[in-house]
């Protein structure tokens, strides 16, 4: 750990990119007491700052980092998937942001950090801590798998829930009916992992019921088949009682 504080109350931070994360991060760092410039839009002039945090699409990071370099002591990105090649450090909040969140959204979450130098790593860790989050290290070698895990935990969950919503609609059910089932399932997974938490026909070995479900899921047949196969593998890991 680094005992010398690298961030100071008068540290200035330019937030480049005014999209979903840029706006929330600017509000949160301002609330944490930093001098925040931005979030800057595409045609804004790049101001001088101690740090430049690039909240732009991954494909734009190299070009925007090059433009920011003369204006900032340290340049960082907030991407989970992009290596450190063009920046001094990265700070990736393991959370989903739609752009409307308050600064409290960072409290208690994990933030993946990595850096080229000990000083830059200390800055990344201190930024995460200042947001109320907990930093953890993910290096370039583990980045793609880490980011795939984040997509499974968030993006793909929504894809599955969307299929559930569509299949339930003809019965007159909506998201509010499904929500308690989803929340209890997530609570059970948090408490004991997928194999222990798994219930339902696949866990019971009731393939006749699975076949009836499959016949009723024509609109999402490919998704059903892929998930049923993967779920049988989870069931195989289920502790025998
Ligand atoms: N949203 C999340 O849940 C989340 C979570 C963790 C990390 N992140 C990371 O945050 C970064 C941004 O993601 P996002 O979801 O916030 O994307 P986003 O909503 O699409 O926002 C990206 C913003 O960058 C702007 N931009 C593009 N090129 C630019 C340039 N050359 N100069 C200045 N601004 C530029 C875009 O402006 P235009 O609209 O004009 O193109 C847009 O406002 C990504 O690295 C992503 O991995 C996002």
Salient structural properties:
alpha/beta; seven-stranded mixed sheet; single chain; 7 strands; binds NADP nicotinamide-adenine-dinucleotide phosphate; N-(1-d-carboxylethyl)-l-norvaline Dehydrogenase, domain 2; 241 residues; Rossmann fold
Description of the structure:
With 241 residues, the chain is an alpha/beta fold. It has two domains: 129 residues, Rossmann fold, CATH 3.40.50.720; 83 residues, N-(1-d-carboxylethyl)-l-norvaline Dehydrogenase, domain 2 (Orthogonal Bundle), CATH 1.10.1040. It has ten helices and seven strands. A seven-stranded mixed β-sheet has the order 2-1-3-4-5-6-7, with helices on both faces. The chain is elongated and about 65 Å long. NADP nicotinamide-adenine-dinucleotide phosphate binds next to α1 and β5.
Outline of this structure?
This protein is an alpha/beta fold and 241 residues long.
How is the topology of this model organized?
Blueprint: E1 12-16, H1 20-31, E2 35-40, E3 49-54, H2 61-68, E4 72-77, E5 89-93, E6 110-115, H3 118-130, E7 134-137, H4 140-153, H5 155-168, H6 175-192, H7 194-197, H8 201-204, H9 207-215, H10 221-236
Parallel strand pairs: 1-2, 1-3, 3-4, 4-5, 6-7
Antiparallel strand pairs: 5-6
This protein binds NADP nicotinamide-adenine-dinucleotide phosphate (NAP).
